[in-house]
User: What shape does this take?
Amino acid sequence: MDIFLKEIIIEIEEKSKFNIINPPIPGKFIRSLLIESKHFKSINKFSKYLNMCPQKIGAMLNNKQKLNKEFCIKLSNYLNIEPNKIMMLQINYDLYILSENNKGYNLYPTSF
Assistant: This one.
């Protein structure tokens, strides 16, 4: 595995830890790691590699759709990491948005 992919894996693993304070926007984060860094020259090339529809991947990487299970599994196979690490990016972000929109939610309960 080349050094660039190792750096991407480290970034995803770090950002996938439970982080409700300012988590990365999932699609934008992945796009910055793989497309903007020039690892893949375009969303079309990336989608061909993952064998997925370019419009679907483009919508996820441009934050018009949430990361879906198929994408997380295929990207995890490419990076050779667990799919839950990629899916946690979306879950953490969703929890952050939920807590921002509903200030009464306590995501860190102190008692039951």
Q: What stands out?
A: The two ends are 46 Å apart (CA to CA).
